[in-house]
């Protein structure tokens, strides 16, 4: 790579069409002698190049390199505009990187024929995997029913359409790797520069071109006054923004070990420390209770996470079978049985828990890849199987087929099963696949999101919102008997989504980010009238760092012992989380639904830190055996799989100085925590984002440290201001009226609990916070203490024709 550097000053040699250009950033701060010396070196190099190759050259002065950096942010983030520009700045940095790689690397031009050859080679390679996959099936290397690996599969279950798009993403990534090997390594170009070089190449002349264009098309036909089910058509000029089965957005360039797909490498050495070693080395040994926050806060975090995020795992390309990356006894597979999508987690010999059971290998299958939104080749991107909008997709589904499968097509209702006069979610189509159960007769539910059965509190939340939709539908039908099924369904869906949005931004977000920080971001909701927040140029797509790391803070706040509370908020019974993963039938037992709802509003959560319940770090998806999996290890491994840069890079992005040594982290961490990091990682840049951010002190009145507050705040800003259908946006074809908005603003999770539980009499107005003098238990029948939105503004008055 022809880049000459002196301190912070770079001279970059660019080659294009046999003309070499010297790009010289500002030299004002460089001493005159250094300028002359470096200039002499550059000119000598140019003269030699000219004599050797007959290349013409000229001197140009581009934008200063520092202009490519994201502006440093203050700790207060006084304006959302900097946040809103991050994806744009990333795109600009990517485009500059591409330009630099294509013009400056001196690499030969890669013509269309070579690009097509790379795709064909990738496709033929996949074809050759058939034999290997058949061998895996014959050798019984598979995920077995009711095992922890089965539970892991349920949480990352890919749909048939996701697999189809994922295959295209895999072909694109493998083709990118082929281009990298053939056209970069021979010339000694480093991996990151090669990744940018490959990103300059378009798919349009290959068999992938039409497929990618169809998926990310901005010319798709959009009609109708309601929000689409699949997330498309939210932006008139970018119709694929937020659409299901598209890639996550990046805030920073991905870091892959080979520039394309391999997990990132440490600064020094061959590989990062095992994710399981990080889990055991960093997690605290004693819990830390948050004395004011309830489990409702944790559960709502998971509920909206599932609305915004669903990362599916890869399956066998030819058979569609799930992939197993370890032997059934917990040892490593022989090399010939390791699928290319495997990235298993190594468990140390002296592991404090798993060594007792001789477990050396923890299953991890890489996430499904997606084609890049610009339809170029380049580093791997991962797919979101949910829509990228806060649009109730976990209730209604993210595809038209799923949405239709959940409807009754009578009076606007969602399908439900009546049991003892109460509505429950309908039965899953394939309970043996979608729950860790041994019988088709076991309770296993169907909802808009496949993860509905993961644990009792999540199944409860889905049940309450199913009932909320059907409750609203009944009232709308009484007000407007002339409305047909689809109008009732769409209007109720629209109201439910508005309620979810209002609860998220009015009740949940100020507690998670802190009320002052929420206000500084401009995310405090209006009390009256409409907002002018929507920005057509703001991409609402979920960032990979939010999906893979930021929103996962909730796991550290979960509890292992789930209390069952009576009407007086006393408990003498409980459920053990480890015994109820993907076994939701407990919610149907006598009075358990109400007891669990009261528990959500009463039981305190853990603090957001590096303490995780044993139910999550050694008993996750436990079957009838003695152990399960480790949620923290899986999350760390997923971050590496997705090419997330290390924690230090996100510190810098958010406005903190990068730690040049581990002691540089002391501005947001304790000495003991920094000492742990130093004992596990060889360099500050190696620290994983999730680990570093969860190690930070909680800031102000939030539940998060500095970096995660920044990443989550950035996402929630784009989620609101980049959504044309957000409930308080005016001037859309079907915007709410001001009278309707006044009613939506009365929505609280407390009212949803009161209206949709079986027989709860008392509730506090803010269920995210424990009952207290300022948040006292009041009667559910009191609409003054817990306001109840009225649907009367939705009544249509028909004008009779004369």
TrEMBL record:
Signal peptide: none annotated. CDD domains: peroxinectin_like. GO terms for molecular function: heme binding; peroxidase activity. It is found in: Secreted. The keyword Membrane does not apply. Residues 259-290 are annotated as: Disordered. The keyword Secreted applies. Its main location: secreted. GO terms for cellular component: extracellular region. Keywords: Heme, Iron, Metal-binding, Oxidoreductase, Peroxidase, Secreted, Signal. One of its GO terms (biological process) is response to oxidative stress. It comes from the Eukaryota. This is Peroxidase. It comes from Zootermopsis nevadensis (Dampwood termite).
């Amino acid at each position: 790579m022809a880049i000459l550097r002196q301190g912070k000053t770079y001279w970059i040699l660019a080659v294009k069409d046999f003309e070499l250009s010297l790009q010289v950033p500002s030299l004002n701060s460089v001493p005159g002698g250094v300028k002359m010396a470096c200039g002499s070196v550059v000119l000598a190099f140019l003269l030699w190049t000219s004599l050797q190759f007959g290349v013409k050259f000229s001197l140009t002065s581009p934008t200063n390199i520092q202009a490519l950096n994201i502006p440093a942010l203050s700790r207060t983030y006084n304006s959302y505009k900097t946040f809103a520009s991050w994806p744009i700045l990333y795109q600009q940095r990517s485009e500059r990187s591409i330009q630099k790689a294509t013009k400056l690397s001196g690499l030969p031009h890669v013509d269309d024929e070579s690009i097509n050859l790379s795709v064909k080679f990738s496709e033929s390679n996949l074809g050759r995997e058939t034999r290997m996959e058949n061998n895996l099936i014959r050798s019984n290397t598979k995920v077995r029913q009711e095992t922890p690996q089965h539970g892991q599969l349920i949480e990352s279950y890919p749909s048939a359409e996701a697999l189809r798009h994922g295959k295209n993403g895999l072909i694109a990534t493998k083709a990118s790797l082929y281009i990298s090997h053939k056209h970069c390594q021979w010339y000694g170009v480093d991996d990151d520069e090669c990744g940018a070089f490959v990103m300059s190449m378009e798919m349009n002349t290959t068999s992938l071109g039409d497929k990618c264009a169809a998926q990310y098309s901005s010319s798709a036909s959009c009609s109708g006054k309601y929000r689409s089910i699949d997330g498309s058509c939210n932006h008139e000029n970018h119709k694929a923004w937020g659409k299901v089965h598209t890639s996550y957005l990046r805030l920073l360039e991905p870091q892959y070990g080979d520039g394309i797909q391999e997990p990132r490498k440490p600064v020094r050495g061959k590989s990062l420390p095992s994710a399981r070693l990080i889990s055991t080395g960093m997690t605290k040994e004693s819990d830390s209770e948050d004395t004011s926050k309830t489990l409702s806060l944790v559960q709502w975090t998971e509920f909206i996470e599932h609305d915004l995020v669903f990362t599916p795992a890869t399956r066998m390309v030819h058979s569609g079978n799930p992939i197993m990356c370890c032997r059934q006894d917990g040892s490593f597979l022989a090399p010939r049985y390791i699928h290319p999508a495997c990235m298993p987690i190594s468990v140390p010999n002296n592991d404090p828990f798993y060594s007792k059971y001789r477990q050396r290998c923890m299953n991890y299958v890489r996430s499904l890849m997606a084609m890049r939104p610009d339809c170029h080749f380049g580093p791997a991107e991962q797919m979101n199987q949910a829509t990228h909008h806060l649009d109730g997709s976990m209730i209604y589904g993210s595809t038209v087929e799923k949405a239709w499968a959940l409807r009754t097509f009578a009076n606007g209702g969602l399908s439900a099963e009546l049991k003892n006069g109460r509505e429950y979610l309908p039965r899953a189509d394939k309970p043996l696949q979608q729950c860790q159960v041994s019988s088709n007769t076991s309770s296993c539910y169907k909802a808009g999101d496949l993860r509905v059965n993961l644990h009792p509190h999540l199944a409860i939340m889905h049940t309450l919102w199913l009932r909320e939709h059907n409750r609203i539908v009944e009232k709308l039908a009484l007000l407007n008997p002339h409305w047909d099924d689809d109008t009732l369904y769409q209007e109720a869906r629209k109201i439910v989504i508005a309620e979810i949005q209002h609860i998220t931004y009015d009740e949940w977000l100020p507690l998670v980010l802190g009320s002052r920080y929420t206000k500084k971001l401009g995310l405090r909701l209006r009390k009256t009238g409409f907002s002018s927040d929507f920005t057509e140029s703001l991409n609402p797509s979920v960032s990979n760092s939010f999906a893979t790391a930021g929103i996962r803070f909730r796991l550290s706040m979960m509890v292992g012992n789930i209390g069952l509370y009576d009407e007086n908020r006393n408990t003498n019974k409980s459920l053990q989380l480890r015994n109820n993963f993907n076994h939701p039938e407990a919610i149907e037992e006598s009075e358990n639904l109400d007891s669990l709802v009261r528990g959500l509003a009463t039981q305190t959560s853990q603090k957001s830190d590096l303490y995780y319940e044993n139910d999550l770090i050694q008993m996750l998806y436990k079957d009838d055996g003695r152990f399960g999996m480790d949620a923290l290890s899986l999350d760390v491994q997923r971050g590496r799989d997705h090419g997330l840069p290390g924690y230090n890079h996100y510190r810098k992005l958010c406005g903190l100085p990068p730690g040049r040594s581990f002691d540089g982290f002391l501005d947001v961490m304790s000495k003991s925590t920094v000492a742990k990091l130093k004992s596990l990682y060889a360099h500050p840049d190696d620290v994983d984002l999730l680990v570093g951010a969860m190690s930070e002190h909680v800031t102000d009145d939030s539940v998060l440290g500095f970096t995660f507050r920044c990443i989550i705040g950035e996402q929630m800003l784009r989620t609101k201001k980049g959504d044309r259908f957000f409930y308080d946006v005016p001037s859309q074809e079907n915007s709410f009226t001001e009278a309707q908005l006044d009613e939506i603003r009365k929505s609280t999770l407390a009212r949803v609990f009161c209206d949709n539980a079986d027989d709860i009499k008392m509730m506090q107005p803010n269920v995210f916070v424990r009952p207290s003098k300022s948040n006292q238990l009041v009667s559910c029948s009191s609409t003054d203490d817990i306001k109840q939105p009225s649907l009367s503004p939705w009544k249509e008055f028909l004008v009779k024709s004369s």
